[in-house]
């Protein structure tokens, strides 16, 4: 397996591998860019089909974290870790402690938080062996950043609706949510409270039932959710759902969801634009979680955190305005803006030295 020639390799600063015979841990940590600060990002556990698939995921996800934190105005770099394994069968306290040792061995360049396949309790177990973890606050949600992620996606959606439809309400709008887990559930809750008609699909019957019973979400088939005739589609399950095969089936005018790396390839954003579908870059609208984690680490007041999350809507509105102005895909504009922030940060000390 080659790292430097891997398709998703983007001059990552650090890619570290761990194999621990005693516990069966096989994991990768990737730090994409630490210009803005230590690389904070989730630790994902997934039964990857191959080592290459795990490497591809961690490289793409860590790069996405760089852009996410930069656009959110956070003093954090981009990093991520993956554990190769099935979280329902392979996760043991010993394995998590070994992951803690692996994180500790990076000396603080990477700080782990929860992600798909890991929860706050798992990060707490890792913290027995490393101080480089985040998201363990004893708040209303026990440190879980998902409600903040959902709130940020909701605010992004509101900005997109204003931009595309010129209205400030979800009343009567139809939204389809793929995945009613930690984020999808809270997103559905906000939308239902605002009068939206919400359709939802989930491969997990218990999660689907909870959303239908508690929120009045209308259950639809997992095979149909992406192609529903709705105003907004919210992918909140997994990555690469918007691809060559699925995009022609999309009937929604707006796509805005929490899942990381929703686009399978960069060309997919241009494809959506050509079809007149407004795509809200995932790394911009799903930043509520990392903003939450940051404010947990710095012990900020809740009002400070909320005000920070509110900025997601403003930034998205700006990106969509610029994208319209220059007729280019929103994802490209958002990436350019993030790179611009990074460039400015890199030049800052030089500019200061020149001025003195
Ligand atoms: P989760 O695991 O709690 O929920 C995902 C849900 O999607 C589950 O209920 C699962 O059963 C369902 N699902 C999986 N495959 C599906 C399919 N093919 N069709 C329909 N449903 C399917 O995860 P989450 O924390 O809610 O995160 C959702 C997405 O948002 C993930 O991609 C995650 O990386 C991303 N994200 C989450 C956060 C956060 O704060 N939790 C932050 C940023 C990004």
List the helices and strands and how they pair.
Blueprint: E1 14-20, E2 25-33, E3 39-46, H1 51-71, E4 77-84, H2 93-104, E5 110-114, H3 120-126, H4 146-165, E6 174-178, H5 182-193, E7 197-201, H6 205-215, E8 218-219, E9 232-235, E10 254-255, H7 267-274, E11 278-279, H8 282-285, H9 288-298, H10 302-326, H11 330-355
Parallel strand pairs: 3-4, 3-5, 6-7, 6-9, 7-8, 9-10, 10-11
Antiparallel strand pairs: 1-2, 2-4
Helix pairs in contact: 1-11, 2-3, 4-5, 4-9, 4-10, 9-10, 10-11
The site of nicotinamide-adenine-dinucleotide (NAD) has 25 residues, from helix 4 and helix 5.
Give a structural overview.
- GO terms for molecular function: nucleotide binding; oxidoreductase activity, acting on the CH-NH2 group of donors, NAD or NADP as acceptor.
- With 356 residues, the protein is of the alpha/beta class.
- The protein is built from 11 helices and 11 strands.
- Strand 10, helix 7 (267-274) and strand 11 form a beta-alpha-beta unit.
- Helix 4 crosses helix 5.
- It is globular and about 55 Å long.
- The protein binds nicotinamide-adenine-dinucleotide.
- Nicotinamide-adenine-dinucleotide binds next to helix 4 and helix 5.
Highlighted features:
356 residues; alpha/beta; Rossmann fold; five-stranded mixed sheet; 11 helices; 11 strands; 44% helix; binds nicotinamide-adenine-dinucleotide
